[in-house]
Each structure stands twice: as structure tokens, then as C-alpha cells.
Design a protein that fits this description.
3-stranded mixed beta sheet; disordered N terminus
Length: about 290
């Protein structure tokens, strides 16, 4: 008897590996992925432990090696971002004065709402809740897509939080509400400094991941919400505008990098003969790796 088994190996592994197969009295039963458009399924499976750990390690390595993959175009983009950041830092006090003159009761409530929406707890709970909902509905096409996308969004948020915390500690910029001016820096003193804005970073990270997977009008809604979260922190005098700008760039870059890494592309197929356990039946294993 010939059996055709279609398997997809974990994205984190540079070499092909086989999906879990279990021999029963009626033959071979394997876990089958339902497939979600544009999103790799290989970080998640019936046993989440090893695939998830492998993916996290692979993605850490992918982000750490980012400078090694820079080409001339990337360097020009980074130069433009650096120039824009420097210009915004010079204008931070004037921008802060502009926002300070716009305070009203309804605007304060509006800013408070979006500040809460972009908080660590709310975004993490949102990502976790969507991941859980996707897991429950994973047998459907849309549920599977939601599960994978939310899983990557959670990962992007955690990476973003770590990078922002390190930068806050290293740069040590005082918050505008402290009235020390836009050039007051005390590096390596505390972890809750102003630069960059973690609210902006985590909001744009989540928006970048989901906007790459879902069609309009979701991207417009997601990026509008992320922008309002960022501006709410400037309005509340918690961050300078340049803090929010750099935070948005960090979050967008991490989210976009991870979701694109996990998208299906550049894969190849391999066909191998296989003998099915004690039954000695001959089979053909067809699998792909990325």
C-alpha cells in the first residue's frame, strides 16, 4: 500500500523535519494544518513546546542579525530616520508647547482612553485573547489565520518591550512633565525614561503584524489607533514627539520583520521513500521546508 503524507517542517529549522505521525490500527494518522493565507503555521502545532521555543530562538537570532542584512537602500532609510529624529528632537519643545495649549475636558478623556488602549496590560491581554480565540477556532480557515497572526503579534510585542526597556535605560531621557527640557539625559539611571515611547512601539508592532495579514479597512483602522495612542502620550506630557516617532518606527519594524519572516515564501518540496513501522508498508513522504 502506498500512502502519501504531506507535512510542513518548522520554519525555525534550517533542515526539513517531519510532522508528528502516529500509527493506529487503521493506518497512519498525522496532524494536518488547515493553512492560513500569508502566515506560516510552523511555529505552532499539536505540541507547542519545542516548535514555539525553536521559533523564539530563531526570531531572536533573526532580529539580532538585522545589521548584517542591511543593504545600501536600508542604510539610506536608516539615515533618513536618524535625520528625522534629530530634527524632531530640536523641535520637541515647540511641539510640546503646541499640545499643551490644546487641553480640554473632552480631549483629556479622549487621550486617556487611547493611553489605556496602548498600555502594556491591554495590548498583551488583547494579543493573548486573540491567540486563545484563534486556538479554539483553529480548525477553520479564519480561526487558524487569527491564531497564527495573534501568536506572532504577541511575540512582536514581547521583543518590542525588551528593546524599548534597554533603550530607555541606556538613553535615560527625562520626561517632558519633569520640565527639564528636551536635552536632559541621565543614562543608565532608571528603566522608565522617556525615549522611546513603549506605548507607540507596542501599538505599531501589533498594527504592523495584523495589517500584513488582514485586508482593508483593517490596516487603516489599526494604524489610526496606533497613531492616536502615540499622540495621546505626547498630549499627556508623558513623551516628547520624537520619543513617539522612534517608538513607532521600532514597533513597526519589528512587527513587519517578524510577520514577513513567517510568511510563506521561497519554499521547496522534497519526496522521500518511507517504510511504515512494523507493517513494512512502503510509502512516500512529501514534505516542504523554508
Amino acid at each position: 500500500m502506498l500512502l502519501l503524507l504531506l507535512c510542513i517542517c518548522p520554519i525555525c529549522d534550517s533542515s526539513p523535519s517531519l510532522a508528528t505521525a502516529e500509527e493506529t490500527g487503521e493506518g497512519i494518522t498525522i496532524w494536518a494544518d488547515t493553512g492560513a493565507p500569508n502566515v506560516e503555521s510552523n511555529c505552532v502545532g499539536p505540541n507547542l513546546c519545542n516548535p514555539t521555543l525553536n521559533c523564539l530562538c530563531s526570531d531572536v537570532d533573526y532580529l539580532v542579525r538585522f545589521p548584517c542584512r542591511l543593504d545600501e537602500k536600508d542604510i539610506m532609510i536608516l539615515g533618513g530616520i536618524s535625520l528625522a529624529t534629530g530634527s524632531l528632537i530640536l523641535a520637541d519643545d515647540d511641539i510640546q508647547d503646541f499640545f499643551g495649549k490644546k487641553h480640554t475636558g473632552p480631549r483629556d478623556d479622549f487621550a486617556d482612553f487611547f493611553e489605556t488602549l496602548g498600555s502594556f496590560e491591554v495590548v498583551l491581554l488583547g494579543n493573548a485573547g486573540l491567540t486563545g480565540a484563534g486556538w479554539v477556532l483553529r480548525d477553520s480557515k479564519e480561526g487558524n489565520r487569527l491564531f497564527k497572526t495573534a501568536f506572532i503579534s504577541t511575540e512582536a510585542q514581547l521583543f518590542t518591550e525588551g528593546i524599548c526597556a534597554i533603550l530607555k535605560f541606556a538613553v535615560g531621557r527625562d520626561r517632558p512633565e519633569e520640565d527639564h527640557g528636551h536635552t536632559s539625559f541621565n543614562p543608565f539611571k532608571h528603566w522608565n525614561a522617556s525615549f522611546p515611547s513603549a506605548h507607540a512601539a507596542r501599538s505599531f508592532a501589533m498594527a504592523a503584524v495584523f495589517s500584513e495579514t488582514y485586508e482593508q479597512p483593517f490596516p487603516i483602522i489599526a494604524y489610526t489607533a496606533a497613531t492616536l495612542v502615540s499622540l495621546s502620550r505626547v498630549y499627556q506630557d508623558k513623551h516628547f514627539f520624537s520619543d513617539a516617532f522612534v517608538g513607532a518606527v521600532i514597533g513597526y519594524s519589528i512587527g513587519k520583520a517578524l510577520i514577513c519572516k513567517h510568511q510563506k515564501s521561497n519554499y521547496s518540496w522534497t519526496i522521500s521513500p518511507v517504510i511504515m513501522g512494523s507493517s513494512k508498508n512502503l510509502g512516500i513522504m512529501v514534505y516542504s521546508y523554508f
